[in-house]
Structures are given as C-alpha cells and as structure tokens.
Design brief:
With about 550 residues, the chain is α+β, with helices and mostly antiparallel strands. It contains eight helices and 37 strands. Strand 22 (about 275) and strand 23 (about 280-285) form a beta hairpin. It binds zinc ion.
Length: about 550
C-alpha cells in the first residue's frame, strides 16, 4: 500500500479566501456521476465532498478528528478534514491530484475527475493500458487495415507527462473524456478481454493470422486515430455483446450496499441473482464480456468478495460471496447494472431480540396426514415444542399457536403471528402422498415469490439438509401447490413465513426417523440455526 500526503499548506490557504460562498456542485468521476446528498460543494477551486459519501466514488474514507485517511484503489492518501456544519468534508481535487488523477471544472459546478493514462503496452498479441483511476473501456476491431481499437473512457492524456509506451501503439485524446488507443494487426483479430483481477488496468488480447505486425509509428507519438470504418461491426466479435467493466461500490452500509457495474453496449434487461447451495450469489450476464479488468474484485461491509467470472461458453457471471444472507435485487439502465444488496426483513440483531411464532400443523379434530395409527398432528407438535424450547434457551420471545392437541383454524394461525408483531412465522408439517414409499425427504415452502420468505426458506432448508439424513428436496413456492393464493398460513402472515414439510409419513425410512427423538431434535435445531443464519447473527465456534 502506497501512502501519499495530500495536504500542502498553499492549497489550504488558497481555498480559505473563498470559503465564504460554497456552491453546490456535482462530480463526474471517470465515467460515473454519483448523487451526493448532502451535495458536494465548490469552494474556490476546490470541491469538497461529505466524507461519509466517499464510498460513492469507491473511496474508503476514515475520519479522525481534523484528519482523514482515504483509500483509493489500494493507495492511501492522508488529508485534512473541513467541517461544514457538523459534517466532515474532504477535498476531492486535492486527494485526486495526489494519486495522479486529472481534475477540472467542466462547468462552474461540475467537477470532472479523469484517470491519467501513464502506460500503454502492445507486446505480442496483447495490449495493456494503465491509468491512475479505474476506467471504462470499449474494445473493438476494425478492418482495412485490421486494427484493435480501445476507447478508454473517463481518461486523459496529460501533455506534460505523456504515457510511456511499449510496442507500436498509437493513441490520442479522442474527445474530452476518451483516449483512443489503436494497434494495427495483420489479420482479423478475435478479441478476448482479460479477466485478470488487476486494478487500474485495461487489458485485451487477440488472436488471428499467423503473426501480428504492428505499424511503425514512433512510440509515444500522439496521432489522430483512424475512425473511418469503426461503425461497421467488427469481424470475429461475438454479437450482440455488452462490455462490462468497472465494479463500483456506490453505497456500503450494514443495511444496504449498492454495486454499480458500468457497461458499454446495451445492458441486458431482466437480470436476477441466484443463491446457490453454498450461499454464493450469481448474476448471469449473457452476451457479455469483461472489457476492462479494472477493479476486478471489490469487498465491503456485507460483501466478502464480488468479481466477474467468464463463462466457458461465452458470457460473464458476477460472483458474489456475502458475509451473511441478504436480499439481492438487480436492475439495469442503458449504461449500468445496479446490484442492490439489502438486509432482509426481520434480519439483524440476535435471536434473543426476536419474537418468533412456531406453528405446529393441524391438531384436535384435524389429524393431518396419517399412517396406521400415526398422526401428522402429533409429530408436528413434538417438533414445534423442540423448536420453541431451543429458541427460548436462546432468549427468543416465543409464541406458539398451540401447545397441546387442539384444533386451530388455518386463518387463525397467521393472525396469532400478526397480533404478536412477530419477526418470523415457522409452520411445521409432515408430508404424505398417494403412493407409499414413492417419495422421501424435506421441502420448505415460501409464499409466492416473496424474496424474504424465499431467503428464510433457503436458510432453513440448507440447515435441515445437513443433518436430516433424508433427501434434500429444496425450497418451493406455495403457488406450486396452491396456484391461486398460496397457502393460507403463509399468505396471512405479515412477517417472513415458511412452512417446513419435514418428512413423508407414508415412507418407511422417513417414518422410522420421525419416531425417534434424535431425528426430531436434529431437525428442530436445524430450523433454529437456519433462522440464525438469516438474521446474520454471529455464531460461536
Ligand atoms: Zn400438514
């Protein structure tokens, strides 16, 4: 990690003169214009941003008294803090300049921050472009003659310190925020963007032809780019494609994180995140390629790691390991994809801080499923009591819908939970089907497509599957069984609610286990562990 000192006395003094009239300002950071509330402020030539919002541009800022340390892409900058009202602000221009970024006021109230390119290498069949900040790149091939073109957006060439070059590359400031890099090759290139997790780096490799010849311009000479044929789709490029690049952690709190993926091309629509059995979240981006390896991996308060993984057959997956189960919502606009990671309903805190309703299915005149002299209602009550006892030992406020053999209507059960203002509703049932010994194992149902209920079902089902010794039949929406409205007990609950079908009463193996204390206890404890996982409570051992 590199440490730089950003506060020079003259900078502080020159700003002091204009401190009296701060003006609200916006910031364009490379290719990204984050919203700041409270707003960034222009004072003199400096732009101050609220320290607590530095994460919006991917900076991690820690304030200590009058000083702050800012981590920008692994480099640390120590700077001063200016208090405006009671809020600490940091000097964006000064910090950005200290890490070699280019800044300028694009208008009186829009500060623009650019990555300064300092190295462009074309060696063999690869091109690397390095800058002082992560950038968004658009990489394509053109014909007549064959060239590889990389448009590096949010970047500047500094005439006073031109980038060093290796190999014969040409580059120019194509427009006021794009540097175009051109490498001529002797055959139609097939581009493969590198997924190497280096930061501040755009890299691209290509193949095609028996050799690659580069044109003979002197290194480092800026020339006008060749633009005549770029409108044509490039030969050899998969189509249609969208290039995904920079991962920005635009917001990062315990309750909510926001990852923004900058894309060029048309962002895919109707994306969704899937959580696999190992708890890893995946967002599939068909027809995408990693155009820039910049900021290849990010982490945050609830994110252990997030990075792109190229799919063997084409396309890209965003892979996210979270520190705890979270709701993940994906949306896209024309030039970015947003991954919103939110704390699920009733999560946070500990089991001891929760009120949980445990519902033993059936009861009284309603025996539920039966086999010989065995009744579902007796097994559900036994397991529900074990769940309630385990929760009580953890300090949870437990409400049971019944604790003896009595009839309770379906609609009454969720009402108990709603009246208790409960955090969770857990209904326990035993399954049966039309043919004995044809099915075995555990299901957990959630209501329709409720994301919180689904996540709770995943957490509980995963724990049961670890200890039951029976087939893991997974989670299911209740509309598979009741397409119109789902299950009454889940439909009526105002909190995350699931229904566990523990095992099949008409399967000999399942039934044998149901009749043991150990099996019921294992399942009951697993249900409690599943809730603890959902809450995100740190577990001992
Ligand atoms: Zn039942």
């Amino acid at each position: 990690m590199l440490t730089l000192l950003a506060s020079a006395p003259w900078m502080v003094m020159s700003m002091t003169a204009a401190m009296d009239n701060p003006v609200a300002a916006s910031v364009t950071y490379c290719h990204y214009t984050p919203a700041f509330t409270p707003a960034a402020l222009r004072m003199g030539d400096e732009c101050f941003i609220p320290a607590k919002l530095a994460g919006r541009i991917g900076w991690a800022c820690t304030v200590r008294g009058d000083n702050a340390s800012v981590i920008v892409d692994g480099r640390r900058v120590d700077t001063f803090v200016r208090r405006i009202g009671t809020d600490p602000y940091i000097a964006l221009r000064t910090v950005a300049a200290s890490i070699g970024a280019v800044t300028e006021w694009g208008s009186d109230t829009n500060l623009r921050v650019f990555s300064k390119l300092y190295k462009i290498s074309a060696i063999g069949r690869g091109l690397e472009v390095r800058g002082t900040l992560p950038v968004k790149s658009n990489i394509f091939a053109v014909k007549s003659p064959h060239r590889v073109v990389v448009d590096v957006m949010g970047a500047r060439i500094d005439k006073a310190s031109l980038p060093t070059t290796e190999g014969n590359v040409r580059y120019s400031q194509f427009n006021d925020n794009t540097v175009r890099v051109v490498v001529q090759v002797d055959a139609p290139p097939i581009l493969t963007a590198s997924a190497m997790p280096a930061k501040l780096l755009t890299s691209v490799a290509w193949k095609g032809g028996s050799s690659v010849s580069l044109d003979a311009l002197p290194s480092g000479q800026a020339v006008k780019p060749v633009v005549s044929s770029i409108a044509k789709p490039a030969v050899g490029l998969p189509s249609p494609t969208v290039s995904v690049g920079v991962l920005i952690l635009a917001k990062d709190t315990v309750k909510e994180s926001l990852i923004t993926i900058l894309v060029s091309g048309v962002a895919p629509q109707q994306l969704s995140a899937k959580r696999d059995d190992a708890g890893v979240y995946w967002v599939g981006l068909p027809n995408a390629r990693v155009a820039s390896a910049a900021m290849g991996e990010i982490s945050g308060v609830s994110i252990r790691s997030a990075s792109f993984v190229e799919r063997p057959g084409g396309g890209v997956n965003l892979r996210m390991e979270l520190k705890r189960p979270m709701g993940v919502k994906v949306s896209s606009t024309t030039d970015n994809i947003s991954i919103r990671i939110v704390e699920p309903k009733s999560a946070g805190g500990t089991l001891a801080s929760k009120t949980i309703v445990v519902d033993a299915g059936h009861g009284g005149s309603d025996g539920g499923a039966k086999f010989g002299g065995l009744r579902e209602k007796d097994f559900t009550l036994a397991i529900a009591k074990m769940v309630a006892e385990e929760l009580t030992e953890n300090g949870t406020t437990v409400v049971v819908t019944r604790d003896d053999d009595r009839f309770i209507g379906l609609n009454e059960r969720p009402k108990v939970a709603n009246r208790s203002d409960a955090d969770f509703f857990i209904s326990i049932h035993i399954n049966s089907n039309t043919r004995s010994n044809s099915q075995s194992g555990t299901f957990t149902y959630y209501h329709r497509d409720n994301a919180d209920c689904k996540l709770l079902a995943e957490c509980i089902q995963a724990e049961i599957a670890k200890v039951s010794g029976l087939p893991n039949r997974g989670i299911r929406s209740d509309r598979k069984e009741a397409p119109a409205n789902g299950f009454a007990v889940l439909r009526g609950s105002q909190m995350p609610a699931v229904l566990v079908e523990v095992a099949y009463i008409n399967n000999a193996t399942d039934r044998g286990l149901l009749q043991t204390w150990e099996f019921k206890k294992r399942v009951a404890d697993a249900i409690v562990r599943g809730m603890r996982t959902y809450i995100g409570e740190q577990q001992e051992d």
